[in-house]
Protein backbone atom coordinates (compact mmCIF):
# COMPACT_ATOMS: atom_id res chain seq x y z
CA UNK A 1 0.00 0.00 0.00
CA UNK A 2 1.34 3.40 -1.00
CA UNK A 3 -0.41 6.48 0.32
CA UNK A 4 0.21 9.50 -1.86
CA UNK A 5 -0.48 13.09 -0.91
CA UNK A 6 -2.43 14.51 -3.85
CA UNK A 7 -2.81 18.16 -2.80
CA UNK A 8 -3.99 20.58 -0.14
CA UNK A 9 -7.70 21.30 -0.42
CA UNK A 10 -7.99 23.96 2.28
CA UNK A 11 -6.45 25.13 5.54
CA UNK A 12 -5.15 22.04 7.38
CA UNK A 13 -6.85 19.76 4.81
CA UNK A 14 -4.86 17.33 2.68
CA UNK A 15 -6.23 15.02 0.00
CA UNK A 16 -4.67 11.53 0.01
CA UNK A 17 -5.09 8.51 -2.25
CA UNK A 18 -3.96 4.92 -1.88
CA UNK A 19 -2.26 4.13 -5.19
CA UNK A 20 -3.03 0.42 -4.84
CA UNK A 21 -6.79 0.56 -4.06
CA UNK A 22 -7.57 4.00 -5.50
CA UNK A 23 -9.43 5.03 -2.33
CA UNK A 24 -9.20 8.79 -1.71
CA UNK A 25 -9.91 10.86 1.39
CA UNK A 26 -9.32 14.27 2.90
CA UNK A 27 -7.63 14.40 6.29
CA UNK A 28 -8.61 17.53 8.24
CA UNK A 29 -5.80 18.31 10.65
CA UNK A 30 -7.80 20.97 12.46
CA UNK A 31 -10.64 18.62 13.47
CA UNK A 32 -9.12 15.15 13.16
CA UNK A 33 -11.90 14.17 10.74
CA UNK A 34 -11.52 12.11 7.58
CA UNK A 35 -13.79 12.87 4.61
CA UNK A 36 -14.57 9.87 2.43
CA UNK A 37 -17.37 9.11 -0.02
CA UNK A 38 -17.79 5.41 0.67
CA UNK A 39 -19.26 4.02 3.92
CA UNK A 40 -16.54 2.47 6.01
CA UNK A 41 -15.83 0.55 9.17
CA UNK A 42 -12.68 0.11 11.18
CA UNK A 43 -10.48 -2.68 9.86
CA UNK A 44 -11.22 -4.65 13.04
CA UNK A 45 -14.96 -4.55 12.19
CA UNK A 46 -17.03 -7.24 10.52
CA UNK A 47 -18.07 -6.91 6.88
CA UNK A 48 -20.25 -9.99 7.30
CA UNK A 49 -21.88 -8.32 10.30
CA UNK A 50 -22.63 -5.14 8.31
CA UNK A 51 -24.19 -7.25 5.57
CA UNK A 52 -26.19 -9.50 7.91
CA UNK A 53 -27.56 -6.45 9.76
CA UNK A 54 -28.70 -4.99 6.43
CA UNK A 55 -26.39 -1.96 6.68
CA UNK A 56 -24.58 -3.01 3.49
CA UNK A 57 -25.96 -5.01 0.56
CA UNK A 58 -25.15 -8.73 0.62
CA UNK A 59 -23.24 -8.41 -2.67
CA UNK A 60 -21.40 -5.20 -1.70
CA UNK A 61 -17.76 -5.06 -2.79
CA UNK A 62 -15.30 -3.97 -0.11
CA UNK A 63 -11.74 -2.68 -0.14
CA UNK A 64 -9.36 -2.47 2.82
CA UNK A 65 -7.27 0.68 3.01
CA UNK A 66 -5.33 2.54 5.70
CA UNK A 67 -7.03 0.90 8.67
CA UNK A 68 -10.58 0.97 7.27
CA UNK A 69 -12.79 -1.27 5.15
CA UNK A 70 -14.76 0.65 2.51
CA UNK A 71 -18.00 -0.38 0.81
CA UNK A 72 -17.18 0.85 -2.70
CA UNK A 73 -20.66 0.08 -4.06
CA UNK A 74 -22.23 2.91 -2.05
CA UNK A 75 -21.53 6.60 -2.50
CA UNK A 76 -22.32 9.38 -0.04
CA UNK A 77 -21.82 12.99 -1.14
CA UNK A 78 -23.00 15.85 1.09
CA UNK A 79 -20.65 18.79 0.62
CA UNK A 80 -17.71 20.26 -1.31
CA UNK A 81 -15.14 18.06 0.47
CA UNK A 82 -17.11 14.99 -0.58
CA UNK A 83 -17.26 16.18 -4.19
CA UNK A 84 -13.48 16.69 -4.22
CA UNK A 85 -12.91 13.19 -2.84
CA UNK A 86 -15.39 11.63 -5.29
CA UNK A 87 -13.55 13.22 -8.21
CA UNK A 88 -10.21 11.83 -6.99
CA UNK A 89 -11.31 8.36 -5.92
CA UNK A 90 -10.13 5.70 -8.38
CA UNK A 91 -11.44 2.61 -6.57
CA UNK A 92 -13.51 1.21 -9.47
CA UNK A 93 -16.61 1.50 -7.33
CA UNK A 94 -19.66 3.68 -7.66
CA UNK A 95 -18.98 7.36 -8.41
TrEMBL record:
| Domain of life, per lineage | Bacteria
Q: What is the designated name of this protein?
A: Uncharacterized protein
Amino acid sequence: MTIEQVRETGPHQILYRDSETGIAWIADGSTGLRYTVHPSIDASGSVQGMKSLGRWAHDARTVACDGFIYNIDELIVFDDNDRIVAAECHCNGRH
